[in-house]
């Protein structure tokens, strides 16, 4: 595997390749990321991965400084997966001048759910992803469904800018007890790790309740959301949201969307101790 930090060197290496498949990451790779590498291999060749902890998507009180950086272990894992190039720019490589041009996703997608609790997050994500696309110029790029809203926003960005990149979704990989794999799981204490799968279990309960919903009560869905929040609070969580949304646009689900069989998704973010976890479940 070639490890490259310089944009020009990356372009030189990829010259003439028009089927490259790209997986952007922030490192601290786990089985979830590696499954995305395998998916990338099915959709293009060569596979290019990136590791860059993107300051632009972290809020002032978030974990940019403490975000786990495990470069050597990550390199070993990517080599085993047969990744052809690891693009690992420094901040100076990727942002040689302050990044004043930014990509601002539309409010109705970028300022809800994660965007409401992490202002500017998706602006930072879209800006770095567009820049990484411009460096790698892949034919396809793979993003995990664990970051459901991110996947949707990147898809819309690629569509609106007519980027010649197909966005491929990768399924969420879970531990045996159901906890979605995440770099931030490493922050959990032993007790918190034992409690953490409750987040997915709660989403499964909400899904069952939604499927059984047989009510004309227009508040039924928001009552389910509130009850799930109350349950998690009772177990010591601090939920930011549990939201039943339409898969197509992440707009709140309504009785009409239920009746018309509109595909729905339940999304959540909640803090356990100091660790903020996110998860989702499609209905
Ligand atoms: O999902 C992530 O790891 C990051 O948001 C991404 C897409 C690599 C952009 O920094």
UniProtKB/TrEMBL annotation:
It is an enzyme of class 6 (ligase). The active site is at 33 (proton donor). Residues 189-223 form a coiled coil. ATP binds at residues 26-33, 144-147, 173, 181-184. Pfam families: Pantoate_ligase. Pathway: Cofactor biosynthesis; (R)-pantothenate biosynthesis; (R)-pantothenate from (R)-pantoate and beta-alanine: step 1/1. Gene3D superfamilies: HUPs, Pantoate-beta-alanine ligase, C-terminal domain. It is found in: Cytoplasm. It catalyses: (R)-pantoate + beta-alanine + ATP = (R)-pantothenate + AMP + diphosphate + H(+). Beta-alanine binds at residue 57. One of its GO terms (biological process) is pantothenate biosynthetic process. (R)-pantoate binds at residues 57, 150. The keyword Metal-binding does not apply. It comes from the Bacteria. Catalyzes the condensation of pantoate with beta-alanine in an ATP-dependent reaction via a pantoyl-adenylate intermediate. Homodimer. PANTHER family: CYTIDYLATE KINASE/PANTOATE-BETA-ALANINE LIGASE (PTHR21299), PANTOATE--BETA-ALANINE LIGASE (PTHR21299:SF1). The reaction proceeds by a bi uni uni bi ping pong mechanism. This is Pantothenate synthetase. It comes from Polynucleobacter wuianus.
